[in-house]
Write a structure and sequence with these properties.
Elements: H1 8-21, H2 31-50, H3 55-62, H4 70-77, E1 78-83, E2 96-103, E3 106-113, H5 119-124, H6 132-148, E4 152-158, H7 165-169, H8 172-185, E5 190-199, H9 200-204, E6 211-215, E7 219-221, H10 225-232, H11 239-245, H12 250-255, E8 261-263, H13 274-292, H14 297-309
Parallel strand pairs: 3-4, 4-5, 5-6, 5-7, 6-8
Antiparallel strand pairs: 1-2, 2-3
Helix pairs in contact: 1-2, 4-13, 6-8, 10-11
Length: about 325
């Protein structure tokens, strides 16, 4: 999904601008002036489109294949990243990645879902859908963070945990539940950012945190719009209606007091300006960690548990 339907007029205009840039300027036509005029129109259309996105359109943006993924964030934000593999029980899961590194000079544990950027990498990472061993690896990393007093950063981007037969046989639901429990009990600061899709238990398994942020055009819900439509309307054709009813946008979830903040994206979405998005996410994480740095770990765990016990009660 490299092109979004609602972006079509903008993309067509940008294509024409690129063509003009390769045309030699003649005396009869001022190419630079024409490019400037068309670029201004494209910028205006982009702002108009992204200031009134529907829930369904935000789903499309959140799933855009060119959005920065886990390894993109690691490459720019984490120094000396050392991946840690395996759950010490069954196997390595490539969908949920994690390891040790230094975030802006401070040691940390970082983990998150990796979807991949092309066919080969998507298959390798199972499209970001983790199996039980991925969530058991997450538990291992959380316990390591607690043991060495390291903060934890989690980056969520998954349609959900892998629903295959083998995953269910190896205890998918138990692994997710145990991962949530481990997040609640870990005596280390935990910061979570929904960078794309936050789907079902596969997302919340590593998103039970002291501070939860969502990128402006990311989504977070108990089920995908297509899955919801298939259950309620007996047809995935009603995914648009389901997206609206699910209240899955960052703006909806902030209003429901289920997240702690929204991280703004560049105009046109994170897929247009990856570096700018990653830097902004890093700034939010840094500020959040700074705010938690003086917290007593026992108090941190108590506050985190209370945070989730109170979810939805003040509405």
């Amino acid at each position: 999904m490299s092109q979004l339907e609602f972006e079509r007029p903008i993309l067509e205009l940008e294509a024409k601008i690129n063509e003009l840039r390769h045309v030699e300027s003649g005396s009869e036509i001022n190419i630079a002036e024409e490019i400037g005029r068309m670029q201004g129109k494209a910028d205006k259309l982009l702002v108009q489109a992204y200031t009134k996105l529907t829930a369904d359109q935000k789903v499309q943006v959140a799933r855009h294949q060119n959005r920065p993924h886990f390894f993109d964030y690691v490459k720019e934000l984490i120094e000396d990243y050392t991946p840690l593999a395996g759950d010490r029980n069954f196997a390595e899961d490539n969908a949920l990645q994690g390891g040790l590194g230094r975030f802006r000079g401070k040691s940390c544990v970082i983990m998150g879902h990796e979807k991949g950027h092309d066919t080969e990498s998507r298959i390798k990472h199972n499209f970001g859908m983790a199996r039980p061993e991925g969530y058991r690896k997450a538990q291992r990393l959380l316990k390591m963070a607690e043991q060495f007093g390291l903060p934890v950063i989690t980056l969520v981007d998954t349609a959900g945990a892998y629903p295959g037969k083998g995953a269910e046989e190896r205890g998918q639901s138990e692994a997710i539940a145990k991962s949530i429990e481990t997040c609640l009990r870990t005596k280390s600061p935990i910061i979570s950012v929904i960078i794309g899709e936050g789907g079902s238990g596969g997302a919340i398994a590593i998103a039970v945190a002291d501070k939860i942020f969502m990128l402006e055009h990311s989504i977070y819900s108990v089920i995908s719009p297509e899955g919801c439509a298939s259950i309620l309307w007996r047809s995935a054709d009603f995914a648009k209606e389901a997206a609206s009813a699910l209240k899955l946008t960052a703006q909806d979830l902030q209003e429901l007091k289920l997240i702690d903040g929204i991280i703004p994206e560049p105009v046109g979405g994170a897929h247009r300006k990856k570096h700018e998005t990653i830097v902004t996410v890093g700034n939010y994480i840094e500020d959040a960690l700074e705010g938690l740095s003086n917290e007593n770990y026992e108090d941190l765990v108590s506050s985190r548990r209370l945070k989730f016990l109170q979810a939805g009660r003040d509405l």
